[in-house]
Design a protein that fits this description.
single chain, Rossmann fold, 2 domains, three-stranded mixed sheet, 30% helix, CarbesteraseB
């Protein structure tokens, strides 16, 4: 690109050239949701007159303390704020017009995370794919996923998802100035980010904002309105308010809201819900449970790629103290998925490995297969499984939740800091995975550098296995699929 000073519809932003890419950080895509705008749908940002410095990331959204801070270099620890609706752009430093665009939605169980995490650095994507990468923040926890639609605020449900739609609208309206093609936008995300994508595909307000979608380790996941209302009432009680009076939520500081959310999560107030803050069925924003909406054609024509990791559950169940008895396990997974699974639990031994596999299969893999098959009649679908691990490593010793992210972004050099040995096969795997994501963004059809990737269908259920050796498998774990899904 010739210029790093770009004019958007709200004002100019000054970026920076770095490592073969042009980068703009901390661009506001909505007005800060503070003061009277707390718990309100996002509004367009106020225009600015002077060029805005876009060389530093904006604040991350308010969230509990976590390992997030440790992911950043010591000199750039993130600032947390309710004023957090910012996005970041990486573009290849080329003159190619109308480049494809990928918009990343971060994970973190809808309570943590940020688009500025180092693993999400889009430089490699932009340079290797001659494309434009966007990462976004969206409101989290009680600030983004409390349902206040029955408290005199009918539009105040799924605010975090509404933020994502506002960001996508901003991208569609402005990305051409950064070299991107507004008609070739792919939205992709992991974990809660993938669950967000699953919801966006079903939301009327998101229709037409992207042409392709990628869901990594997450699928249809929503609360029924009655449960979401119970979560809101519990928050009100924990903050000392009276039933039905949401004013205490407006009066509380962000820290008080987070403390109440923490107590809610730890107490019986939340029942057996492990994710009290997540998308909710709501007539105006998300009227139909996502997988049902997809089955009915809500995402007709949108190419879909999705998959899971072989050992997702090992992140959450890896020690004996994490184990549950079968009754509690059944209740928790039914609360998380909204589906009866008690009879399926007999397949899994009451061991750490057995319960981790149970979570992998019933929460992650089963939901992804169901979502894939719901979309088959309406658009092409591709399925993958990530199997790579490094034997003996404390975290990467299994293909657990989130381990595919540095491979997708081809930022695996960061893995060396945690003791991962980057052998030739590992480096090649990152190139192959990123190439598949890049070609999907360019053509709505993924392919690796080595072997063609045929689409997923009910005849052979072709699945790409990403490991040290990449291969296509036909209906992997077919017997398990029949037992868990019944078709």
């Amino acid at each position: 690109m010739e210029n790093t000073l770009i004019r958007t519809q709200y004002g100019e932003v000054q970026g920076i050239r770095q490592d073969g890419a042009v980068i703009w950080r901390g661009i506001p895509y909505a007005e800060p949701p503070v003061g009277d705008l707390r718990f309100q749908p996002p509004r367009p940002p106020q225009p600015w007159q002077e060029p805005r410095d876009a060389t530093q990331f904006g604040p991350v959204c308010e969230q509990p303390d976590s390992e997030l801070e440790m992911s950043f270099p010591a000199h750039v620890r993130p600032v947390k704020s309710e004023d957090c609706l910012y996005l970041n752009i990486w573009a290849s430093d080329s003159s190619t017009p109308n480049r494809p665009v990928m918009v990343w939605i971060h994970g973190g169980a809808f309570v943590t995370g940020a688009g500025s995490l180092p693993f999400y650095d889009g430089t490699s994507f932009a340079v290797n794919g001659d494309m434009v990468i966007v990462t976004i923040n969206y409101r989290l926890g009680p600030l983004g996923f409390l349902d206040l639609s029955s408290y005199g605020m009918p539009d105040s449900a799924n605010l975090g998802l509404q933020d994502q739609i506002a960001a996508l609208n901003w991208v569609r309206s402005n990305i051409a100035a950064f070299g991107g093609d507004p008609d070739r936008i792919t939205v992709f995300g992991e974990s809660a980010g993938a669950m967000s994508v699953a919801s966006l595909l079903a939301m009327p307000a998101a229709k037409g904002l992207f042409r392709a979608a990628i869901m990594q380790s997450g699928a249809s996941q929503v609360l029924p309105p009655s449960t979401a209302h119970g979560v809101t009432e519990a928050m009100i009680r924990l903050l000392g308010g009276q039933p039905g009076d949401a004013s205490v939520l407006m009066e509380a500081s962000a820290q008080q809201l987070l403390q109440a959310a923490s107590r809610l999560h730890e107490s019986s107030e939340a029942g057996l819900l492990t994710m009290p803050f997540q998308p909710v069925l709501h007539a105006q924003t998300l009227p139909v449970e996502p997988v049902r909406a997809i089955r009915d054609g809500a995402a007709k024509g949108i190419a879909l790629m999705l998959g899971t990791n072989q050992d997702e559950g090992r992140m959450f169940i890896n020690r004996p103290e994490h184990m549950m008895n079968k009754e509690m396990a059944g209740q928790r997974i039914e609360a998380m998925t909204g589906q009866k699974v008690a009879l399926l639990l007999e397949r899994y031994p009451e061991t750490v490995e057995g319960q981790a596999q149970m979570l992998t299969d019933l929460f992650f893999w089963r939901a992804s297969v169901q979502y894939a098959e719901a979309q088959l009649a309406h658009a092409p679908v591709w399925m993958y499984r990530f199997d790579w691990s490094q034997l003996g490593h404390e975290f990467f010793g299994t293909a657990t939740h989130a381990t595919e992210i540095p491979f997708v972004f081809n930022n695996i050099a960061m893995l060396e800091r945690s003791g991962v040995k980057l052998d030739e096969q590992t480096v090649n795997l990152a190139k192959q995975m990123q190439r598949a994501w890049i070609t999907f963004a360019h053509t709505a059809t993924p392919t690796t550098l080595e072997i063609p990737w045929t689409d997923y269908n009910k005849n052979d259920r072709t699945t790409m296995i990403f490991d040290r050796q990449i291969e296509l498998a036909h209906d992997p774990d077919g017997e398990k699929r029949l037992a868990l899904i019944g078709e």
